[in-house]
């Protein structure tokens, strides 16, 4: 029969948050070690910086969607959609204006960001695709 359909206030946001946080912590540790071994501190710092920017963006989205979902799934979807342009502007600004050491602005920063984003999206997709989701906010 499978899992029961999710209704209002039942999306697994905390499970997603915990799963992504754990995966990115492991990825940060492994990527930092590999970076140091291959190219030294600038590689490790760049990798960790890229991963951290993606994680902060993810965490902000989760912190916005949880209270919005208490109102309705429609409000949660609207909150997530509204956050995308905001996050793009803020995190682009951080990349341009934040005092990130010049040594860290390298290919490893991009690698950390791409791997973190890929891990985040795979985990979110895997968790959400296993849910039975109602298409309307209310039954009846």
Automatic annotation (TrEMBL):
Keywords of the record: Membrane, Transmembrane, Transmembrane helix
Statement: the UniProt record of this protein carries the keyword Membrane: yes
Lineage: superkingdom: Bacteria
The keyword Membrane is annotated on this UniProt entry: yes
Segments crossing the lipid bilayer: 20-40, 46-66, 78-100, 106-123
Protein's recorded name: ATP synthase protein I
Species of provenance: Candidatus Rothia avicola
């Amino acid at each position: 029969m499978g899992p029961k359909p999710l209704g209002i206030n039942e999306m697994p946001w905390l499970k997603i948050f915990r799963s992504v946080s754990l995966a990115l912590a492991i990825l940060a540790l492994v990527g930092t070690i590999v970076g140091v071994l291959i190219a030294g501190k600038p590689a490790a710092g760049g990798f960790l910086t890229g991963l951290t920017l993606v994680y902060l963006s993810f965490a902000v989205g989760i912190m916005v969607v949880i209270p919005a979902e208490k109102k309705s799934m429609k409000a949660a979807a609207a909150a997530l959609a509204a956050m995308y342009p905001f996050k793009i502007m803020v995190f682009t600004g951080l990349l341009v204006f934040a005092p990130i050491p010049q040594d860290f602005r390298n290919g490893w920063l991009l690698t950390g960001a791409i791997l973190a984003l890929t891990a985040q999206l795979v985990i979110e997709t895997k968790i959400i695709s296993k849910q039975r989701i109602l298409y309307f906010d209310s039954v009846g």
